[in-house]
Amino acid sequence: MGGQAKPPRPPKGLKAGFKRPGVKEEQHKINDRIWAKRVRVVGEGIEAGVYDIKDALKMAVEVGLDLVEIAPNVDPPVCKIVDYGKFLYEQKKKAKEMKAKAAKVVIKDIRFGPHTDEHDFNFKKNHAIKFLQEGSKVKAYVFFRGREIVFKEQGTILLLKFASELEEFGKAEQLPILEGKKMQMVIGPKKK
């Protein structure tokens, strides 16, 4: 079987693919756990460049910091000389900020029956206007109980009337769809 490349050697005392129970697997390879022979080194106050792994480790030890592999899938891998604890803290902080900035879509349900009268319709329309002004989506649906399913056309007319009444506050994202005993449509808020 000559000619085949050997997989990288696992750390001393571990078989390939084995994980110690109760020990969290590190997100990044640090210091002597980096197996590449040459690495690209970056960091504050360090001359960036490609170095032999021994030289890169020596540079990290001289400044009293860790050598952390931040981009393992490039050739040569990119390593940063940084305090590993501080590096993890900053990464968690960035992830938390990204999560906070991500748009959270809230969907509010409004339920009708096929024979909803005018007063109930206006009451639910006013709630929908409030939800759309807050930035939430509104899922309006008509629920058919028992034999009410024969009034499908009334359900469609009711939902289309609902969407047209809300035109200045939101836009219908889909036409009414019948799924089982529910006919529904989603109305999204208008962009400001």
Written overview of the protein:
With 192 residues, the protein is an alpha+beta fold. The protein is 31% helix and 24% strand. It has helices spanning 53-63, 84-101, 118-134, 152-165, and strands at residues 38-42, 49-52, 66-71, 78-82, 107-112, 137-143, 170-172, 177-179, 182-189. Strands 5, 6, 7, 8 and 9 form a five-stranded mixed β-sheet that branches. Strand 8 and strand 9 form a beta hairpin. The chain is elongated. It starts with 37 loop residues before the first strand and ends with a strand.
Please give the domain count.
Answer: 2
Instruction: Supply the helix-strand structural class.
Output: alpha+beta
Report the sheet-strand fraction: 15-25%
Helix-residue proportion:
25-40%
The run of helices and strands is EEHEEHEHEHEEE
Main sheet characteristics: 5 strands, mixed
CATH class of the largest domain: Alpha Beta
Shape by Cα distribution? elongated
Rg calculated over all Cα atoms: 30 Å
Q: Which regions have little confidence, pLDDT < 50, spanning 5+ residues?
A: none
The CATH architecture of the largest domain comes to 2-Layer Sandwich
Say what the CATH topology of the largest domain is. Translation Initiation Factor IF3
Number of helices: 4
CATH H-level name of the largest domain... which superfamily? Translation initiation factor 3 (IF-3), C-terminal domain
**Mean pLDDT score:** 80
What is the end-to-end distance? 66 Å
- What is the number of beta strands? 9
Briefly characterize the structure.
By secondary structure, the protein is an alpha+beta fold. The protein has helices spanning 53-63, 84-101, 118-134, 152-165, and strands spanning 38-42, 49-52, 66-71, 78-82, 107-112, 137-143, 170-172, 177-179, 182-189.
